[in-house]
Specification:
six-stranded antiparallel sheet, alpha+beta, single chain
Amino acid sequence: MSALPKASHGPLAKFAGTTKGRAKFSVKVAAAAPLPAVDRLLAGATEVDITPPPGMPKAGYSSNAQDGRGFRTRLRARVLHLRSGRSSIAIVQCDLLGGSSVLQFLVADAIAARTDIPLAGLMIGATHTHAGPGQFSGTDFYNRFASNRSGFDPAWTQFLVERISGAVIEAYESRGLAQLAVGSTEVWGLTRNRSLDPHVQNETVPDKRTEPQRKFAAINPLLHLIRVDATPDDGPTTPLGTAIVFSVHGTGISQHAPEYNADLWAYLVNEVRNRIAAERGVSGVVGAMEGTHADMAPALRPGRAGHVEAQRLGRAIGGEAADLYERLGDELTGDVELAAGFREIDMAGGASIDGIRLPDRPAVGAALVAGAKENLTPVIHHFPPFKAGMPKTFGTDNHHGVKWVLGSRWLQPAILPLRTFPRLLPTQFLRIGHAAILGLPFEVTVESGRRIASAIERATPDSGIDQLIVSSVANEYCGYVVTAEEYGRQYYEGGHTLYGPRTQEFLAAHAARLAGEVLAADEPVLDVGAERRWDLKVHRYLAAPTGTGIGRVALTAPRYFDATGDEDGYWEFRWRDVAPGDLHWHEPMVRVEQRELIADVDDSAGDTAGEWSPAVHHDRLVDDQGCDLEVTGQGQDAIGWVYSARWFDPAFRVGRQHRFVILANAAGTEITSAAFD
C-alpha cells in the first residue's frame, strides 16, 4: 500500500493523546485546480481494514449498545476512483454507521497534494452497520447519542483519516484504463418496511410495486451496481472494482452481540466477491453502501437476529448483485461522463429555499426515545408521548408541528445546546455516465427518496441520466428525513427528523438545484466556507499501546460447542497475550491450518500425519479475513489479557486434523493450538 500521510501533519495530531476537554480544529478548503481532459475512463480501486481494538463504543443502538470486544467480520473501507473528461471522483464505502464531515474534509486535505481528487468529488458513504464504532462524527449530538458512551475520539478518527486517505492515494496511483457499466435490479422478499403505518399515509398512486398496504411491497427493491473492469492493452478486461447501493438497515445482528461486525453487508460483499472470483479468477475490490433505507429492515425470521440470519439474507442479496454484475458485462464502456458537486447548507438563522423554510432550532422528538420498531426500548415504548403513532394534537402551530419535543420546546435547549446539533448539512451530486448518485447525510425513507429523485428529474429533464441513486448517511450523520405525511404519525423516524415536517421538501429543492448546477458546469461545483471548523467534546476510547510485553501462551485446548437454532457450531481456542492496544487489530491475527492423517495399511506403526497447510472450507481460506473466524478479548487474568478465537461453521472430515495459528501480528511470535478433528 502507498505510504500513509503522516499523522503529525493533520489537524487532529495535537489531540491524539487528549482524553478529555474539547478539540477545536479546522482545515482550509482549497479551490480545485482545473484538470486537463482525458478521453478515456481511468480507474483505480483498493480496500483497507479499519477494525479497531476492543473497547470502542458501538454506534447505532444508542444507550442500548455496548463496547466492542473484538470482531466477527472485519470492518473495511473500499475506494472506487474514477477519472474522465475534466472530472475526478472517489467513492469511499465504509463499514461504519455513516459518513462524517471530519473524515470527508480531513481526507480531502490529506490527499490534496498527491491526487487530483477535489473535495467535491470525494464521497464518504457507509453500510450503516450498527456494530461498528462511533465517536468520529462532526457533531457533539451524535458523538453523544449514537453510541452507548459519549465523546469525540481524536485518536480513533485520526486512524480512520490515515487509513482512508492512504487507500484513496493508492487507488489514484494505481489507476489505469478501464471500462464501466451501471445497472439495477429488483430484490424482493429480503427486506420489509419496519414503519408501515407512516408509509401508508403517503399520497401516492398505487401500482403493483408501490401498493402501500402490502407489507413486503412497501420497500425500495432497487439494487444498483457500478461495475468497473481494468482494460489491459493485451487481453480481456479484468475485475477492478464494484460498488453496490442497496436499501436495508444494518440491523440483522442483535444489539447484544459484543463484537464489531459489518452485519449482513459482510455476507453480501463476500458473496459477490466469491461469485466474481469463481467466474473470472479474481474479484477486484467489492464495496457497498446505503440507499434509501430509513424505514427498511432486513426480513429476519421472528426472534432470529444473529449471524445465521444475517448470512442468509446477505448472501441472497449478494447473489442478486452477482447476477447483475454478470449481465452488465455486455454494457461496459470506456466513454463515461463524470461530474461532481458538493454544498453544505448552513442552517443558521433558519434556512430557506423556494419558499420552504426550516426552523433554526432542531428538536428531538419523544418518539425517538422509544426506538425503532425492530429494536424498541423496553417498557417506555408503551407509554405516550413516547409511543409510536401518538402525534401531538394541540400547540402544533410551529415549525415542528405534531412532534412531542422531548422535554418541551422550552427545556430541551437547556439540555441540548444548539451548537451540538448538525448545523451544516452536506449535499453531494456525482454523475457517472447515464447514472448519478445523490449523497445525503440523513437516513432517507423510501418515499422521501422517491420524491427527492423526482424533483431532480423534473429540474433536469434533458440530463441523459436514467438512473438516479439516492444514498443515505453520506459525508455526515444528521438523523432522519421523512415525508410530511410520515412525519404526521410520529413514529421513530418522524421523531428523529430534527428539522421538522418540511425537511424532505427542503432537501428535494436543494438537491434539484445542485444537480442542475453540476450538470451545467464544466468543472466541479463547490459551495462551502473557506475554512471548515469543529469544536467537539473529547473522550478517548481507542486502546493505546502499553509497551508491556508478556510471553504468549496457549491457555486451553480447542473445544467444540454445538450449534443452536440461532448460531452455528464452533471450535474455540483461548490464549494469553499483550494488551489490546499492543496488537494491530486491522492486520491479520488468526488462521486455521489442516493436515491429512495417513493410515498405516498394516497397522504396524500407527497413523502418521502429513504437513500442515492453510485450511480451506467452502473453497475459501479459513482465516480472519472472511466471515467465519471471530477474535475477541475476554478480559484480564492475573498475568495478562485473555483472548479467544472461534471458528464458526467448521469443516469436518474423517482423516483430517486442524489447528489454530495465532499470527505474529505486533507481538512478534506465532503460537499454535493443539490439533483437533
